[in-house]
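=== RUN LOG ===
request id: a7f3
mode: sequence -> structure
chains: 1
length: 86
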Amino acid sequence: MNDSSEIIKRIEAIENRNASVTLDKEWETSWTRKVAIIICTYVVVWVYLYFIGNENPTINAAVPPAGFLLSTVALEWLRKYWQGRK
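=== RESULT ===
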């Protein structure tokens, strides 16, 4: 009995780990994460530009988040292409 209960515990641990890894992967590719990064980046850059006296921080702060968004769209396509070659 001890061996079977140990095996069951190990299987449950593996299943819990797999569920955690799956959830992490979903977070990494989620639009919620991307939008949160875009908003945080915009706010941080806007505050920085404002305090250094930039003439138009509202518009200029949009450049880094826009670059991030474009890179995620482009890199997603590139990743799928790369995965298809493996």
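=== NOTES ===
The chain has one domain: 2-85.
The chain has a mean pLDDT of 92.
=== END ===
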